């Protein structure tokens, strides 16, 4: 029996559970034995000119080895060239852009967000670093802050005066005046998809050592190999002279792509002063220094027939990209690509603008553009349902892409590979007891008590491995002791790659997974690879492991045929025992150790690189049940039922874990989390006392329903599962909260649906109902 | 993040603690559980030059039945308060509210004396002390005195403590009737109260409705003149000066105060 | 000042600055790096250890406050021996109660402390008891399962 699809516990866990992981701060490598500590001096102002930096007092403080500013960066290559005339910033540039929107490593003459790095202090230990950093005197001449989208569009203060505008990019079609012709019901709504902080439990951390012409960087990163090229490019080194290692990484959620700006400063400083360095950020730094996510203002317009058929949908997006357009238009591009969601809508239009503001730069956060698309269409569907009077579940059923339309070419340009959207909806409705929930809701409404019930739905489709063509690498070696090692270009930071990759090897080769070692995140051992983001690991990296295993199996068949003096065609691999034998003669068999020992000087090994012909499109439906105290406005989640169909499931345990975590982050966005800035660009949520991460006490247990509709894009049949939970849970939860008070006349509440916002919406609806009745 | 440098001194008796504090002068702070003070020091919002650690003074950790009074040593932790059978019986408001503070780790360290001395209007125990008309026993260079809770909290993080004075004991008269209630409204379980209400008999105290913990005098007056709980609760915001911050506007806090006082009075009425 | 703490059964003594936080003493002086620093404000619980048997946040205690006392970190939880795990650790693996592992040391010790105080908690009691420990990966679902599993095994043992 195949091990795939069975409930296997993780091989990673015993170490993490008995000794704890080895994160950057835990590294005790000899090269880091004398590592000094880096502490950043960060801007306390959102927007200002730097008129002077006085490091003299800091230099005299105990333990101070160096204080460095942009003026010391005389050993860097020139910044990247500006994009070609008229191109605007690149589509998905992960590193600071050149030209008008150029981002320095340390602020040069201007700071553009609170938390921007201005100088670094190098000390013997971290305690000295915090003291000395306070002694660095920076003179600022404050400039008017652009704190939000409105201020950015007003353009009275410009972040990049030479650009002449705060609008970095404009794309998409102007509204077609006839798009909503024939619609009996049209609804419009402005929606804020609020700014979030990713908050991996381990913040950013980098150590660096430059010795004998070689730069070694240990980074808390999702992508060692991409990090190597970023470090090499930024420091002007040959990539062969750079080694990037990712030790245990305490979560990433999209925000630990490659090596970021502050990490590059650490690497540069290590080379500049010739001393190994280590930097581990504090949470207060993390909340302003690590990129944020989401931050879109959307206008949705949806129209259709009075009986619930959607005919037209338009989504206009303004993406706040923060102080530097690091990802340029990529996030709203993905939002636009997935705008129409899982629905078969004849006319879909999207357009977006990207604006800069004096806030922390925006980049990927779990879902990266896709949750924003789903949040918009799922709110629009509920608004349309309310306007037509058709049940929200029914509106979804009427409009979901039917199974006979796949591959489905969406109105916004995506090609959905496979799906059973209606089946997913129906499974969730049945599993949750939708009809009974509606009856319970009606009973509570009739009774008129303070605590009302809300039922929220969200059907979604998302895109995973959007960069499928970039592929992923694997190298598989079978050793002479019969054990195997996998070198993967994919990168684990909690997902359980080591377990899943070992399962794949056991399934293909019959080498027990306990005998399979998985290595990732060291560019000396694995020079080529892409890493982990966009729910790409299993379908690309896992398939690469499978391909390498198939290759090894082919080689082994030839070797075993020689050993057993039989023809290759007569040989079979017994994957239960892990032995090669002549078909029908199990007594004469050879073990993997024997076969590997018979290989030539290069051993028994295979390299694979798997690129997918197209991205894949997981889908599903979430149903959330909320109890809302209409007197205080507080919502409490009582149930969360989901189908998340990501194709063939290799490890149910890991897939469920991804869904659980995704759901919690989605509920958290819907109910609690928001990075808030005041009008001067000061962050008001810069500790975990104010930035409200959800805890176990705010969540119910989740009810996960199984569904597997394989993709044809890879031989495993697997799609991505890393982000689905977040994508579905966010609007389902928001819709549940609004549904709980919809009978009072409330139609929309922006996220986070905090108690005060719910109370305000209820109060406003009651006032307006009262006014209507008075007339 | 780490605190700015300071000198640490450990006291092994109350006398020694007072002596050390007196010698260290104005920039000294007592350190009990440290769960109010150390977070402020790490953010460098507090930079004392000297910390006098009183955490080893087990002589200040007790709960005693003294006839008409319950006497609680200042170093009794929130966790101990919440689990003490005597308190569950005699002062259920105190035991219940203590069990709602922070999280288990905080309750294992935080102390009633430290919480009251900190004078945070968003903390739960000051309002509980007001509702229970507690008396704080204070020792200092000038000797021992008692301060009524009503006179103790004077402003934002300000109390009637003079420099060098230490709260050593909190005394509670056993309530004549058990009617009590505690309501704490938060976004998350871990959060400080956006608004809280402590009720004991006819005394109603509010958390986070002003720069200092305060009694809801208008509610108490209405109750005294025979108003129903619902009528009395409608006066909950009178005489308050609720803060407006990230978590709530003033208007919302005032609304919450009315709702929560109504619920608390109703709870209390169900425990006659 | 000189601080002496019994860490996982072994005495550790060191001269450290007065302001040294317990978590840093454990990581640097005692060499026990499992306890992590996840925030600045006692909010996240990643630094949770047992002090005289009860869960505390080692980032909000001075090393001096633990002078002369006993601390248990994740490394000291299991009985010494090859690969043995404490029942709570074993339950975390069985129920997939961890992903990136960063919150895990604190989570496990918070769970051990909870079960010492309440050997048979309900799901709601487990969830409330974890209010001071943040996990960003698991959605807590399997952490709660793991603690309930460990409690059940403790009862049947």
Overview of this protein structure:
Chain A has 775 residues and is an alpha+beta fold. Chain A is 29% helix and 24% strand. In chain A, the strands form seven sheets. Chain A has a seven-stranded mixed beta sheet with strand order 3-5-1-12-9-10-11, with helices on both faces. In chain A, strands 7-15-14-13-8 form a five-stranded mixed beta sheet. Chain A has a four-stranded mixed beta sheet with strand order 18-26-27-28, sandwiched between helices. In chain A, a hairpin with a 4-residue loop joins β22 (571-574) and β23 (579-582). Residues 86-96 of chain A have low confidence and may be disordered. With 272 residues, chain B is α+β, with helices and mostly antiparallel strands. In chain B, α5 runs antiparallel to α8. The longest helix of chain B is centred in the C-terminal third of the chain and has 20 residues, at 250-269. The mean pLDDT of chain B is 95. Chain C has five helices and five strands; from the N terminus they run ββαβββαααα. In chain C, α2 (87-94) crosses α5. Chain C has helices at 22-29, 87-94, 104-117, 123-129, 141-156; strands at 2-7, 10-15, 48-51, 54-57, 70-72. In chain C, β3 and β4 form a beta hairpin. Chain C has 157 residues and is α+β, with helices and mostly antiparallel strands. Chain C starts with a strand and ends with a helix. Chain C has a five-stranded mixed beta sheet with strand order 2-1-5-3-4, sandwiched between helices. Chains in contact: A-B, A-C, B-C. The interface between B and C is medium-sized, with 30 and 33 residues.
